[in-house]
Fold:
Amino acid sequence: MIEVICNDRLGGKVRVKCYPSDTIANLKLLVGAHTGTRPDKIRLQKGYSIFKDHILVEDYEIKDGMQIEMYYN
Structure:
């Protein structure tokens, strides 16, 4: 199990535990449960690459303790 830190760029950070074999859609569900935001309104990205829902967390090489950006649509 790994811990991912989602930064919303407005001063809020959410720490979410997930498995590397989870999809990005599952990660959005966990982030949405912590923030109270619907998962379809969350966009996760690192740098300029926007994460797609059907790809696995490990395919994007997201490691334990890594920070990713979270935006609300």
Summary: The first helix runs from residue 24 to 35. Strands lie at 2-7, 13-18, 42-46, 49-50, 67-72.
